[in-house]
Design a protein that fits this description.
- By secondary structure, the protein is mainly alpha-helical.
- The protein contains 24 helices and seven strands.
- The longest helix has 142 residues, at 379-520.
Length: 684
């Protein structure tokens, strides 16, 4: 249960708090800006930001502010702002339990985002739909909307949204105890975030993977991924997330019985929560520290801490967590033999549990009340509470069993319904096919009759003319055959000459490359001269590889760019003994030789320069990426080295690259923030 509560803390508290805390700090400045701003789109944004800020301080103000934003956006015909406001209104009605209004506003928001051509807004609206159905316990409906959000995020290359949505789908599978499916989606989220260097997404995915391993009882794997998540969060200054991860690690050590180590991690989480004014994390860490103190027999300290956690959750109106705090407080009072206080606090927990229909907490309270009455000597009351506890416990088991049966029945009915639909579709298709076949046969019959009539007429005419034209035709056939033989002989001679030319060109390139290699091996050659010869060898090898691809190509001078660039990278790996050159290509790309030669030489020059100047030793990473768009090819070469300084780094290699880029009529951009990155947009 502790692990599940920790998961809820991560899903619900962390993303909202990270946003609302920043907005709370800017609340006064937002109101100041509101007073100064004209009734335009800026004011719409301020109203919306204020509604987000009030999420944790005054929930009653959220809806009026969102409605003001909606009305102003509507009057300004600001469709995107109106959609944002409608989504916020729908979300608030969902939290207030008004399902009809919630769905109506969310559907309107989704339509408006599509009309405004703002796909990220549509993704966010799908996520709110998913939250609505998740709170209703309709996990399959929630999963369907998250899947739509995933597909749209992938389509528009919104990788942050895609990573977050995929991780949330894994969370739904976790709630269904489908651990293998949950882990598939969590690892998929980790892959997306890692590929796009989305560090917060990496840390969140690692944390969720650890949660699943913990739920499966694999504490070793769970700790391994928690430590990875903590390392990522620290490296990227994700302080709030560090607190959540430290809390989760503390829970694992507590479950393992290593109480002092658990206490160390929970205290670290508590300090972060207090430093960031993160009340949910403070309450959660305080409650866990209280639980550890109880196991250490420090009941007075445990009672003090659990009461503090209860007060925080009461202020936050987190009644779901408050009832658990109250039950823990009652258990501590009972352990201290303070029966009156234990009973009073247990009844408070029972009242909230009945309001929220939480059978698990009700069961725990009745079990405690039975033990209290037993210690007081009221055995009749103790028996009554024991019977109530057992009835609720059996009810929980029955509900779980019913849910499982209902899920299986629903699955069976859906499959049966789908089978019937498939059969009906097949019958319709067969009927349509029969009708179309009969119609086609009639048409064929008419066409055949017409063709036969034409053929008979032609044959008759041919018979009449045959005697007149036979000798003339024979003479023409002989002439055509002689010309055809002559053309074939010429084609053969041309092919032989072309093969001979290609063979000699290849031999000449290999001869030049070999001479350069022999020259470079001369003992009197200094290292700079050897390096220059090696670079020249690589350029010749680049052209030689292209010639080989042209010889093998059946596409009239077209070559596969992906294979060509991969071979260049492999050749340079061997030439410079540099292993970490990686190629990533989204699709197959074919280009003519007049583009392939300069592209290959650009890749050769930039990789050579990176190996020579970007790394102090032969350690590091170089990446080649290509992508094909409608009117252009995107080429990127980047390394993880020390970075290229444009003011001081213009040498012959870069001059050659610029010249080749101009030859291709390509645009070139250089980024030196992290290593060196060269981006080329090459017109097709």
């Amino acid at each position: 249960m502790k692990q599940f509560l920790s998961l809820l803390l991560l899903f619900c508290c962390f993303p909202l708090l990270a946003q609302s805390d920043k907005l709370i700090q800017k609340k006064d400045s937002l109101y100041a800006a509101l007073r100064k701003s004209a009734p335009d789109t800026t004011r719409v944004s301020i109203y919306l930001n204020l509604s987000y800020a009030y999420a944790k301080i005054n929930k009653d103000s959220i809806l009026p502010l969102a409605i003001k934003a909606r009305d102003l956006a509507k009057s300004l015909r600001y469709l995107r702002g109106e959609a944002e406001a409608n989504r916020q209104i729908g979300k608030q009605y969902s939290l207030l339990g008004n399902s009809d209004l919630a769905l109506s506003y969310l559907e309107t928001a989704a339509q408006q985002f599509q009309q405004a051509n703002y796909a990220q807004g549509t993704v966010a609206t799908y996520i709110v739909f998913a939250d609505y159905y998740e709170k209703k316990g309709k996990l399959e409906s929630s999963k369907r909307y998250l899947t739509l959000a995933e597909q749209l995020s992938k389509k528009i290359r919104y990788f942050k949204g895609e990573a977050n949505v995929v991780r949330r789908i894994g969370g739904l599978y976790l709630q269904q105890s489908k651990y293998d499916s949950a882990q598939v989606y969590h690892f998929k989220s980790l892959k997306i975030a890692s590929k796009n260097k989305y560090f917060e997404g990496i840390a969140l995915a690692q944390n969720h993977i650890a949660v699943v391993y913990d739920m499966q009882g694999n504490s070793t794997k769970a700790l391994e991924y928690y430590q990875q998540a903590l390392k990522t969060a620290r490296a990227n200054d994700l302080v709030s997330l560090q607190g959540t991860i430290l809390n989760n690690i503390g829970i694992i050590y507590q479950n393992k019985g290593e109480l002092l180590k658990a206490l160390e991690y929970q205290n670290k989480a508590l300090k972060i929560g207090e430093k960031l004014n993160f009340p949910q994390l403070v309450a959660h860490a305080t409650s866990n520290i209280s639980s550890i103190q109880t196991e250490l027999q420090n009941t007075d300290k445990a009672l003090e801490l659990q009461s503090k956690a209860a007060n925080i959750n009461k202020e936050l109106d987190e009644i779901g967590t408050l009832k658990d705090n109250l039950l823990d407080i009652a258990l501590i009072h009972f352990k201290k033999k303070e029966l009156k206080e234990a009973e009073l606090t247990a009844r408070k927990a029972l009242e909230i549990a009945k309001q929220t229909n939480d059978l698990r907490t009700q069961s725990g309270v009745y079990e405690l009340l039975a033990n209290i009455e037993k210690d007081k000597g009221n055995f009749e009351r103790a028996l009554y509470y024991t019977d109530t506890f057992r009835t609720i416990r059996d009810s929980i088991h029955s509900i779980q069993k019913f849910k499982t049966t209902a899920e299986l029945e629903a699955k069976y009915q859906n499959e049966l319904k789908q089978t019937k639909i498939n059969l009906l579709q097949k019958d319709n298709l067969l009927q349509q096919a029969n009708i179309e076949q009969q119609s086609t046969l009639k048409q064929y019959f008419i066409i055949v009759l017409a063709l036969l009539s034409v053929i008979v007429a032609l044959l008759f005419n041919r018979y009449r003319l045959k005697s007149k034209s036979y000798f003339a035709l024979q003479e023409q056939n002989d002439l055509l055959e002689a010309k055809n033989n002559e053309i074939q002989d010429k084609n053969k001679r041309i092919e032989l000459l072309y093969d001979e030319m290609q063979h000699r060109f290849k031999n000449n390139l290999q001869l030049i490359e070999s001479l350069m290699k022999l020259q470079a091996q001369q003992p009197q050659m200094d290292s700079n001269a050897q390096l220059i010869l090696q670079e020249s060898q690589n350029r010749i090898a680049t052209i030689s590889m292209l010639q080989q691809y042209l010889n093998q190509s059946n596409q009239h001078g077209q070559i596969k760019l992906v294979d060509y660039l991969t071979d260049i990278a492999e050749h340079l790996k061997i030439s410079f003994q540099f292993d970490s050159i990686f190629s990533f290509h989204e699709s197959e790309i074919s280009v003519k030789s007049d583009k392939a030669i300069p592209i290959g030489l650009i890749v050769n020059e930039l990789i050579t320069n990176a190996i020579k100047y970007a790394f102090k030793s032969n350690t590091g990473q170089i990446f080649i990426r290509t992508a094909l768009f409608t009117n252009e090819i995107s080429l990127q070469i980047n390394d993880t080295g020390s970075g290229f300084v444009p003011e001081t780094g213009i040498g012959s290699g870069l001059m050659l690259v610029k010249g080749l880029s101009q030859q291709l009529r390509a645009t070139m951009q250089i980024d030196t923030e992290q290593g060196s990155t060269f981006n080329f947009q090459i017109p097709i």
